[in-house]
Amino acid sequence: MSVIIETSIGDLTVDLYTEERPRCAKNFLKLCKVKYYNFSLFYSVQQNLVAQTGDPTATGKGGESVYGMVYGEQARYFDLEVSPRIKHKKRGLLSMVNNGNGKHGSQFFITLGEDLDYLDGVHTVFGEVAEGFEVLDKLNEAYCDEKHRPYRDIRIFHTVILDDPYDDPDGLQVPDKSPGPTQEMLKSDRIGVDEEVDDTKGMTEEAIREMVAEREAKANAQLLEMVGDLPDVDVKPPDNVLFVCKLNPVTTDEDLEMIFSRFGPISTCEVIKDHKTKESLQYAFIEFEQPEHCENAYFKMDNVLIDDRRIHVDFSQSVSKLQHNAKGQASNPKEDKEDEDKPKYVLKDQQRKDDRYDLVYEHDDLPDDGESSKKKKQKKHKHRKHSDSEDDNDSKDKKKKKSKKHKHSRSQSRSPVRKEQLKSRSRSPDRRDRRDKDKTDRRNERRRSPSQEEDRRRDGRKDGRKEESRRRRDRSASPQRDRRDRDRDRDIRR
C-alpha cells in the first residue's frame, strides 16, 4: 500500500508492509487519512542516521496513535510488532519510534544511512521509500544545530493515500478537506519555510559586488577597531583633506601649498618624510578650510604635471588625526585642546580640617586672593619654626638637668675616705696596661662567635668536672691516710 508525503523540500512515495506490520501500517494510514501529519516538523535530522518527525509539538514527547483518538487515553500507545523481524539495513526505511516503554504512538523516522543494526528490536520497521531519494539527500545535507534541529524548518505539508486496505475504526472522524495550520504549529524560532534566505535575489551583478564590498569593508573596520587602529567602526575620514601621491622627491610643502591655494584657503599642507633620512616619501596631505574648495581641487588637479611628475589626487581616507573620546566617537584634536583650556575645579583649601566634604570653586571664584594665601603660608611656616626651636630648647634643658643630677648623686655617694683612697691610688703604667688588657679581653669575649663561645663553655664544664673528681678522690683517701700516719707515729715511739 502506498502513501505520498509532500514536504517543503520535495515529495516522497512510500510503500507500507501491510502484511508484516498490520497494526503499524493501519495506524500510519489512518493518521494520514485524518491529516494528522500535516505541517509536522522534521525536528531531529542526524546526518547518515535518521530524520525524525510525526510529533505535532516538535519536541519528541508528543503525539498519539489513531487508537487513542478513537478509544481514549488508555489506548494512546500500542505495543511493538517484533515478528517477523525486519532489520534497519538500507537507506529510506520507515520505522515507528519507541516511546521508551516498548510502545508506539504517531512518531516515525526515515533512515538516512545503511546497516543501522543497533536500532533493530527497539523500533519497528513498517515501510520503505519507493520514490524521492533526492529528497533524502536534501534531508541528509540539512544544516542543523548541536541538538540536530535544522536551522531552516522542514515540514510535511500534506499526505495523500493511494491505497488503503483497512476499514476505518468506529468513531474515526475524517475531515472533508485538509485543515489549516494553527499558530502553535507554525510557531518556530528558525528560518521559516517560505522565508527568503537569498538576499541577492533579483539584484544585478554590480549591485551584488557593491554589497559584498560594503560588508567586507565593515568587517575590516571591526577588526581594525579591535586592534586599536580605528577609534570607532563608524568613523568617517574628514571631507576637507586631499591625498596627493606620485610626487617628485624635490617637491616641497611650500610648492604644493602655492599650487593648491588657488582653490581656497589651506589650513595645513604636509609632505610626508622619512623619520631618519628626512627624505620625501612622495605623498602628501592637504587640508582645506572648506569642503567645497577641497572638492574643486580634487576635480581640477588629478593627473596634473608637477615637477615632471603626473600626480594623483584623491580624498583622504586617513583617520589618524582623529582621537577617541569618552563616548566612543571620533573627535577632533582641536576641540580636545579647547576642552583642556577650560578652567578646572579645585578645592578651596588643600588642608582638610575634618572628614566632611568641602565646597568646590573655580580658580577665579576662590574666596581669598593670592596675597592672603601667601601671608597664611608665611605665618604657618613661622609658627612651625618657632615650635621647632622651642622643642629643641626644651630637650636641651632636660638633658642638662639630667647630667647635673647624675653628677650630684655621684658626688654625694662618694664618702671622704673613698675620695682619699681614690686620690692615693697610684696610677702607674702597669695598672693602666692591665686595665686596658682586661677591656680588650672583655671586648674579644663579646666579639666571639656563637661556636667559639660554646667551645669555651664546654672547656669550662670539663675543667669543673675534673676538679670535682679530684676532690672526691681526696675525701675518699683521707681516712686511709690518717690511719697510715697514726701507724707510722706509733712505730716511731716504740
TrEMBL record:
GO terms for molecular function: peptidyl-prolyl cis-trans isomerase activity; RNA binding. It is found in: Nucleus. It is an enzyme of class 5 (isomerase). Its main location: nucleus. Residues 6-161 form the PPIase cyclophilin-type domain. Residues 374-386, 398-411 have a biased composition (Basic residues). The keyword Isomerase applies. One of its GO terms (cellular component) is nucleus. Its EC number is 5.2.1.8. It catalyses: [protein]-peptidylproline (omega=180) = [protein]-peptidylproline (omega=0). Residues 333-364, 417-471, 480-494 have a biased composition (Basic and acidic residues). Residues 240-318 form the RRM domain. Keywords: Isomerase, Nucleus, RNA-binding, Rotamase. InterPro entries: CRIP (IPR035542), Cyclophilin-like_dom_sf (IPR029000), Cyclophilin-type_PPIase_dom (IPR002130), Cyclophilin_PPIL4 (IPR035538), Nucleotide-bd_a/b_plait_sf (IPR012677), RBD_domain_sf (IPR035979), RRM_dom (IPR000504). Coiled coil: none annotated. The keyword Nucleus applies. Residues 320-494 are annotated as: Disordered. Residues 320-332 have a biased composition (Polar residues). Belongs to the cyclophilin-type PPIase family. PPIL4 subfamily. PPIases accelerate the folding of proteins. It catalyzes the cis-trans isomerization of proline imidic peptide bonds in oligopeptides. This is Peptidyl-prolyl cis-trans isomerase.
